[in-house]
UniProtKB/TrEMBL annotation:
Xref: PANTHER family: INNER MEMBRANE PROTEIN YBCI-RELATED
Positions of transmembrane segments: 7-25, 138-163
A Pfam entry, by short name: YdjM
Keywords: Membrane, Transmembrane, Transmembrane helix
InterPro entries, alphabetized: YdjM-like
Full protein name: Metal-dependent hydrolase
Organism: Heyndrickxia oleronia
Highest rank taxon of the organism: Bacteria
Amino acid sequence: MRYKTHIVSSLTLGAGISITLHYPFHVGYVLGIMFGSLLPDIDEPRSFIGRRSFGFASFVNETFGHRGITHSLFAWGIVSFFCLLSPTPFTIGISLGYLFHLFGDFFSVRSIQLFLPFHPFRPKLPLSYKTGSLSEDILFYIFTILLVYFVFILGHLHHYFILSSTELLDKMIHILVEIIKGVMT
């Protein structure tokens, strides 16, 4: 999957969880999902996140290859363990976004090795898509429509998102004012 499809599909699944479990669609949760949905591709230097990794993606790629260990439930477990040591909407979002990325790539033609490093099995599913193809474009538009439906119609999640965004902005302004006061005195 391309990065934009990973982001939109992960946000859609995250909105679905928010509606189902009545979990707040907090700005931190949304940003965490977006970041987490890109994180497994740190093993590809040409990926969206890889191009911004200051060379770390090249190291990971040379060590493990693309769609290797970073695309496994083992890696998701490690990331989730560290994220959930301090559970916040952001860290919960990272864990979910990472899992949703794996879910998306699992259904690609190439699939992923879910059980690395314990077993190299790579399932081939009858219902799959090819990255960059028309079928992925269709998935992108379906997920986009579902996301809009979940956020604005079904769950009215946009209200909480806007409220949490303004609260975050307010906190940032207060911190900035305190820093400026400290510098001026």
